Amino acid sequence: MSLMVWIEKQRNLIDFVLSSLLRRKGKNFALIAAYILIVFVLASVMFLTHALKREASIVLRGAPEIIVQKMTAGRHDLIPKTYARQIEKIAGVSSAKTRLWGYYYDPLFKANYTLIVPELFKYEEGGIAVGEGVTRAGVTAEGNIMPFFSSDGKLMNYRIREVLPADSELVSSDLVVMSEADFRGLFGIPEGLVTDLAVSVGNPQEVLTIANKIKQQYPDTRPVIRDEIIRTYDAIFDWRSGILLVIFSGALLAFIIFSWDKASGLSAEERREIGILKATGWETSDVILMKFWEGLAISLTSFLVGLLLAYIHVFFTSATLFEPVLKGWAVLYPSFRIVPFISAYQIAVLFFLTVVPYTTATIIPSWSAATVDPDLVMRT
Amino acid sequence: MRKSAIYLTITVINIALCSALFMHAAVRRKDAGKELASQANIVKEYQLTDLVLFTEARYTRHPSMADLNTPFQDYPFSFEHFPSGSLMPVPPGIRR
Question: Where are the domains of chain A?
Fold first, then answer.
């Protein structure tokens, strides 16, 4: 059979399939809508988690190599500065810097901020730099005064000197950056104590050894290494765990039920149609080919449309439909544009999870109907 | 026009749009270099350890810094107080 004849045969089959699908317009459009929705949810979850995971791994590469926390009675406690000087003496440690940071709950706007003291703060005392999310939650702007209640109940006013760049919201949205004196004054933290230590190591391959040495030398500390920080985000955004698995498995289960319904049998009308086709001279292989095109017409169209919508949802609207779930009770929620890290692997996984099972599920019952005597099929 | 021609045209348009998305993704990734560098600079400058995703509880704001017993300490009979706490699996460092 020449190629042209083969193509013409396939086109005739597609014409026939489309006419047959359009005869049951309502049912088939509902089917396509449900199918698109499932692909959309699955693809949105996959796109969002993969992109955030990649972004976290790139951005957090600059995080401190080892963070040393002090534990007291099983809880994170302030660490004396003297620990830093001792840790610096460990062979292989290039520096042990102190970090001062904490949380502040703003009772006025019911938002939580992360207060942080940088190594070098470019503004004088009384000045602060804030993330975009803070200006949104606190309905404020650069140049305005921001009130805070100190640990002894006094009202402290700080002037916003800078709003951190909007394109860094994923890491800076809730930050309030201030001087050391202001931070200590606000929380009443005595000189000589800091929140934790950031340890730098000369040779990256020695990080684990040095973390173990710190733990041995100071059993009341807990070193957290950068690899662990990055692995944390791998675990959070792994689509096989957490709530994402719940969303994912919900959609997948819906899809399995959907395919199972299709695979478990044909409607009486569809069986009669196959019987008539067989009686008019169609081969079993033609019927199977016709059903293959039917499955593909529905699943491929739904897959492509679902994929397009998911991409627009995640990368153009910042996954706006998932926002209520991700936001929880938080008042302050970063508004960030997700960088589209997508891969052919993700598309292939989605394709094999959706199009292949559905198309197979359409062919199998038709094959069993097509192999039965047409007279019998038409009578049942 | 034959129905098959309409269907094949729609499918080709869909495939072309999907390919355009890949191209858009590639262009955005290239442009995002500045954005990612700005984030990485802030992480380095302020010695940050976590992304701002969930600001409602300290163990979801800084999951990598969460201690071993924080998740269950809010009040008796409360396994999880904040919605985001149930969205987020336990960090591997804690399970170690």
Answer: 9-59+236-379, 79-194
One pLDDT digit (tens) per residue for chain B, 96 residues: 888 899 999 999 999 999 999 999 999 999 888 888 888 989 999 999 998 888 877 778 888 887 665 555 544 444 565 666 666 666 666 655
Under 8 Å between Cβ of A230 and B51: no
Q: Check A64 against B49: CB less than 8 A apart.
A: yes
Whether B49 sits inside 8 A of A229 (CB atoms) is yes
| Paired sense of beta strands A155-163 and A145-149, if any | antiparallel
Closest alpha carbon within chain A to B44 = A62
Q: What pTM was computed for the model?
A: 0.83
- Model confidence at A155, in pLDDT bands (50, 70, 90)? very high
B80 touches A at CB < 8 Å: no
Residue type (1 letter), A352: F
* Cα–Cα dist B15/B13, whole Å: 5
pLDDT tens digit string along A22-41?
Answer: 888 888 898 899 889 989 98
A261-272 pLDDT tens trace: 776 667 777 778
CATH no., domain A79-194: 2.40.40
- Report CA Rg, chain A: 31
Tally Cβ neighbours within 10 Å of residue B92: 15
Angle between helices A284-311 and B3-45 (to 10 degrees): 40
Question: Are A342 and B25 inside 8 Å of each other by CB?
Answer: yes
Residue of B nearest to A68 (CA): B65
- E strand or H helix at A350, and its extent? helix A344-370
